[in-house]
TrEMBL record:
The gene is LOC104234536. Belongs to the cytochrome P450 family. One of its GO terms (molecular function) is iron ion binding. Gene3D superfamilies: Cytochrome P450. It comes from Nicotiana sylvestris (Wood tobacco). This is Beta-amyrin 28-oxidase-like.
Length: 478
């Protein structure tokens, strides 16, 4: 009887609660979607977006719609996906700080297939591990060793590939250098034939990342998958050899990322599988060599086009060389003195963002500026639209590094070439060291003049900025 009364009371309470919610409670306000249009059926606004991506004009695509809808977020449809496009410093801050709560990184299908570990490693886990590994590499005990490797390799590369030449294609050579350095730092490989072999395979592998994932003989994606299998086989041999070395000598120095990864355990004390380690190393190499090669090439192009800044930078680098004597190899303190040079590079990255923006996916409904972005929608955060906004950079097309030297006010979250928050590029500091060390060696020994003064900078694979001819120059020894 008591049981019956109890169940009756519970049922009654549920019914009353239901009636109250649906008949008496104030109806919940429906939050609107962001303004904008989904464009044409299926293709949406993909064509306009890809064209602007290719010409490095995504900021115009975004600004046009931001002005039209008078909103820093608008909806569109790209590659068959509903997308909310964000811009402005508040949006940057929102996306960076809400990183893991509301959003996850988005891996396109081609990336998922080329990196098999993505099927069992969550993307957020990935970033944290990458940051751990790199921070070890850059701690105060190890950083001077890394800088001296960068310095010696820059010197060696310039001696072998630039010295005595009247003309060079800058992007091709710099890419070979940044690749050689990255593979050495991440895997310990030093043998130049082995490096060249990896380099050729990596070029094919990287092309697949942005291709349609059609795995059929002859397609770009098929060739990339094949290159991936070969690269993984070679990595397996390197991993096995390193494991043996570590077994023989437990104090083997953690001189490269690979040794670090072999030593990394997750919360449950589990080590990474070979597939995971190879994917991580490949991720580091891909994240590193093209971005830094592009940045160095663009910096050289801007330097030559802006003689007033060029002279100041030469002066800064000469002063560092004078103060170093009798020491020959660069160290951390020298890098800290390269302030004008790094400001110049920052202004290059503001003007021509190497990465124009990033994609995320909403893992729950997100409310932003009175609009809702439904769960499952993709988010595109445009760096370029903010970096070229005259509200924050009064003359956005004028090249002026002084804002990065503390002259004038740099509004926080306006120039974010490396992203921000918990998913910020883990290689930011590595990139700064690599770029500055290479520029120091270059400026000490060479001057150059563009062979194609009107050469355009495009984004041929929709990803990175590249001068169309690879920036061919006439070279002069100092
Ligand atoms: C000028 C050079 C570089 C630029 C402009 C750059 C920019 C970026 C940006 C914008 C992201 C995406 C961040 C996000 O999704 O919020 C990223 C991610 C990444 N970068 Fe860099 N990067 C550079 C150099 C490097 C270097 C040298 C390394 C390796 C040492 C590296 C490794 C990575 C990795 C592994 C990721 C993926 C992180 C993750 O989401 O798990 N990057 N980078």
């Amino acid at each position: 009887m008591e049981l019956f009364l109890l169940s009756f009371a519970i049922t009654l309470a549920i019914i009353i609660n239901f009636l109250f919610k649906y008949f008496f409670a104030k109806p919940k306000e429906k939050i609107p979607l962001a303004p904008g249009t989904f464009g044409w059926p299926i293709i949406g606004e993909t064509i306009q977006f890809l064209i602007s991506l290719y010409y490095g004009l995504v900021h115009e695509f975004v600004q046009k719609r931001t002005n039209k809808y008078n909103s820093n977020v608008f909806k569109t449809s790209l590659l068959g996906q509903n997308v909310a496009v964000f811009s402005g410093p508040a949006a940057n801050k929102f996306i960076f700080t809400n990183g893991n709560k509301l959003l996850i990184g988005y891996r396109p299908p081609s990336v998922q297939k080329l990196f098999p570990s993505t099927s069992f490693v969550p993307i957020e886990h990935d970033t944290k591990r990458a940051q751990n590994v790199i921070s070890y590499f850059l701690n105060s005990k190890n950083v001077d060793k890394l800088i001296s490797t960068m310095d010696n390799m820059s010197h060696f590369h310039l001696e072998n590939h630039w010295k005595g030449k009247n003309e060079v294609i800058v992007y091709d050579l710099v890419k070979l250098f940044t690749f050689s350095l990255s593979i050495r730092a991440f895997t310990g490989i030093e043998d130049s034939d082995k490096i060249l072999n990896f380099y050729e395979k990596f070029k094919i592998f990287t092309q697949g990342l942005l291709a349609m994932d059609i795995n059929f003989p002859g397609t770009t994606f098929y060739k990339a998958m094949k290159a991936g299998i070969e690269l993984r086989k070679e990595m397996k041999a390197i991993i096995e050899q390193r494991r043996e070395e570590l077994l023989e000598n437990p104090n083997f120095p953690k001189v490269d990322v690979l040794t670090q990864l072999l030593d990394e355990q997750d919360g449950d004390g589990k080590y990474m599988t070979e597939v995971e380690i190879s994917d991580k190393v490949f991720g580091f190499i891909i994240g590193s060599y093209d971005t830094t090669a592009t940045t160095i090439t663009l910096t050289m192009k801007y330097l030559q086009e802006k003689p007033q800044f060029f002279n100041e930078i030469i002066e800064e680098q000469n002063e560092i060389s004078r103060q170093m004597k009798p020491r020959k190899v660069l160290c951390w303190d020298d890098i800290q003195k390269m302030r004008k040079t790094w400001s110049f590079v920052n202004e290059v990255l503001r003007n021509k963002p190497v990465v124009q923006g990033i994609f995320r996916e909403a893992i729950e409904d997100i409310t932003y500026e009175d609009f809702v972005i439904p769960k499952g929608w993709k988010i595109y955060l445009s760096f370029g639209a903010t970096q070229k906004n005259d509200e924050y950079f009064p003359n956005p097309n004028k090249f002026d590094p002084s804002i990065f030297e503390g002259k004038g006010e740099l509004v926080p979250y306006t120039s974010v070439p490396f992203g921000g928050g918990h998913r910020m590029c883990p290689g930011k500091e590595f990139a700064r060291l690599l770029i500055l060390v290479f520029l120091h060696n270059l400026l000490k020994n060479f001057r150059w003049k563009a062979k194609v003064p009107s050469e355009k900078i495009l984004y041929p694979f929709f990803l990175l900025a590249i001068p169309t001819d690879g920036y061919p120059v006439n070279l002069y020894n100092v």
